[in-house]
Amino acid sequence: MTDRAALYADLVARIREADAAYYNEDAPVLSDAEYDALRMELRAMEDLYPDLVAPDSPTRTVGTRPSGRFGKVAHRVQMLSLDNAFTDDDVTDWAARARRFLGLADDARMAFTAEPKIDGLSAAARYENGVFVQGATRGDGMVGEDVTRNLRTLSDVPKRLAGSGWPDVLEVRGEVYIEHDAFLAMNEEQESKGEKLYMNPRNAAAGSLRQIDPGVTASRQLRFFAYAWGDVSRPIADTQFGAIRKLAEWGFQTNDRTERFEGAAGLVSHYRSIESDRAELGYDIDGVVYKVDRLDWQDRLGFAGRAPRWAIAHKFPAEKAVTQLLDIEINVGRTGALAPLAHLAPINIGGVLVAKATLHNEDEIERLGVKPGDTVRVQRAGDVIPQILEVVEDGGGDPFTYPTRCPSCGSDAVRAVDDKGKRDVVRRCTNSLACPAQAKEYLVYFVSRPAFDIDGLGERQIEQFFERGEVTEPSHIFTLHDRNDDLELESREGFGEKSTQALFAAIEARRRVGLARFLRSLGVRHVGQGNANLLARHYGSWTALQTSATAETEEMQTIDGIGEAAAGSLHDFLNTAESRAALDRLLAQVTVEDAPTVENGSPVAGKTVVFTGKLEKFTRDEAKARAQSLGAKVAGSVSGKTDYLVAGPGAGSKLKKAEDLEVEVLSEDEWLALIDGGG
Ligand code: IVH
Q1: pLDDT for the residue 36
Q2: Do 368 and 240 have their domain in common?
Q3: Structural domain contains residue 376
Q4: Is 243 in the pocket of ligand 1 (CB under 6 A)?
């Protein structure tokens, strides 16, 4: 191989590795800037030496995984959602929390923007050198669908950026929506063709964007409001308001009800004003979004879980309606929880046909005194499942008796009582995975997006395999291919030659799985996405994690954010013969990859830090968030594994313990010099 070819192959390999880590793990191995630099280098080489270009070069296949109807796009910057505020007080509290987090003085000025929250679906439009190159839906926030051909048909999405001064890479984010008039016209047309009607403008927008034929999308008059950005090669402004103005200059539609307020006091009156004009806007909105205006503050505030600390959605009150309760069905979830589901006489609430509502639990049914036949008031808020608020008229039926046996397996279903004698509100089947409903629900979860994410396997397929006894635990999924001489999937309805092969390929692709994803796929109570990430980052490898978690729970509990409940249930899971055996059978089929350490050049990546005493330049929350974003682990107590204790004035017992254990003690300034100076 020539040097040039070797260099090319090396670049490709490094980008692939970064893509895989980004894709399968929550922690990328490269910073966005490093990743972009690699890609730019690759593109430059390909421009210079076209002979070298591999057919599957990352420049051609960027993060796309051909599957289903659309290819997939890995978002370079996660597409997150927003936390909600429902009352004026929630808004005041949010602004106060942000001030506290930033450690602002009481009289420091803090500006916010407020704009309508559009009820559509979010999408990202990527521009390279001013040219539209890719469109993507949000998907699960990490990976979306490649809707490039569809998004480019929208007249609000410029094919080329207008004006000047845009960065080389600019990913504009916003909401695809449909105006009321266009929605009505579209449904009339559907009706005249005898096709199904869309329930509301949001469904219509989503359905229209995700058309296989972009010609259909083009005929649907979809619109796009730009309100945010993702991957950018350099900052576009200093403030949110300034950034939105830039987006408008570059040819995007931005919402003309966007305003900037000095202080949080004006936000709520803007909300009221938008709310009173809601019906005249011509498109659906479901609240008002507030954002901290200064972008350096947005960066410092960062994210907590799936939502930014620097923005919040102030929702409009939920819509309500009255209908009849037909029946109460009890379902069993994957953790054995009995969940009552109300079947309702279908009713239109705020544009959505509602036929089911949750009743939460046994106590709620008792509190409401609700029974089949009653007339009830139902509330629907956003995307959450509707709920029953009250009984409006007694239907004269018999009181509902909540089952004390599992409706699936007949085992006892009990409400646990904790140390303090408090009864759990949830009644659970006691039969664990020996209960068919739990075992099946767990499998459905196992193949779902947040877990193993196996394309082509969903509830319907799992149900079929499960009913036939072919897949009753996760390991069985990985032996389907070998058993196919007997199973003959391709001859079954709903499979066929092509989708069977696609399914086997999708399963094969999941034989290697990142540690965090593997952990959250185990379905252990209290070990969801957040805790799985913390554990993966702390232990790094499955071997280290399982050794520690099987033996004891103390070490796990020193991890900031991991409590007794999570540590205890993981420990129990690993020490219970049945779950352990099923786990070992799964491990015989899949390889768990180590969690990538964050390679950001930070000297604190992978180090364990404890903060104590009063910090003067940062609030404790900000210091913690910053350390974590650099790849450090933040622990709550000092132990032999602590690398640094950052001690401010007033440090007490932790400082003493650190000294006893000869842990390096840093002042706040020394810590800052360490993380900012890059060591
Ligand atoms: S900002 C980091 N601004 O609401 C989050 N979102 O409930 C950036 N949405 O996923 C989002 N209008 O799809 C933002 N003016 C607006 C919005 C808006 C609608 C959607 C968006 C987001 C969802 C969260």
Answers
A1: 64
A2: no
A3: yes
A4: no
Q: Does residue 571 sit within a domain? A: yes
The residue range of the domain holding 35 is 4-52
Cβ-based neighbour number of residue 275 at 10 Å? 16
> Is the CB of residue 175 below 6 angstroms from any atom belonging to ligand 1?
yes
- Lookup result for tokens 């995700």: 210
**523 and 575 together in one domain:** yes
Q: Is residue 599 part of a domain?
A: no
Question: In sequence order, what are the residues at sequence separation of 6 or more whose Cβ sits closer than 8 angstroms to the Cβ of residue 116?
Answer: 255, 257, 274, 281, 285, 287, 288, 289
Run of H or E residues at 514: strand 512-514
Find all residues with CB under 8 Å of 284, minimum gap 6, and list them.
118, 119, 120, 177, 180, 200, 201, 202, 351
- Mean pLDDT, range 43-48, rounded to an integer: 78
Mean pLDDT of 364-371: 96
pLDDT digits (tens, 9 = 90+) for 466-500: 999 999 999 999 999 999 999 999 999 888 898 89
Same domain for 439 and 575, yes or no, is: no
Q: Is the CB of 247 under 6 A from ligand 1?
A: no
* Whether residues 505 and 647 fall in one domain: no
User: What CATH number is associated with residue 14?
Assistant: 1.10.287.610
Ligand 1 centroid from CA 312, angstroms: 9
In the set 117, 440, 624, 654, the catalytic residue is: 117
Q: Which residue has the higher pLDDT, 571 or 620?
A: 571
Choosing from 363, 393, 423, the residue where a domain stops is: 393
How many angstroms separate the alpha carbon of residue 125 from the centre of ligand 1?
15
Measured CA to CA, the distance from residue 375 to residue 373 in angstroms comes to: 7
The residue-averaged pLDDT of 373-387 equals 84
Tell me the CATH number at 443. Answer: 1.10.150.20
Ligand 1 pocket check for 308: Cβ under 6 Å: yes
| Stretch 410-429: mean pLDDT | 92
What pLDDT sits at residue 3? 77
| Cα gap 299→297, rounded to integer Å | 5
Given a cut of 70, is residue 22 above it in pLDDT? no
Of residues 515, 529, 669, 650, the one with CA closest to residue 595: 515
Of 171, 175, 310, best ligand 1 pocket probe by most atoms within 8 Å of the beta carbon: 175
Ligand 1 atom having least distance to the Cα of 117: 12
Same domain, 157 and 277: yes
Name 150's Cβ contacts closer than 8 Å, sequence gap at least 6. Answer: 135, 209, 210, 211, 214, 217
Residue 522 lies in a domain: yes
Query: 117 an active-site residue?
Result: yes
Which amino acid residue places its CA nearest to atom 10 of ligand 1?
A: 81
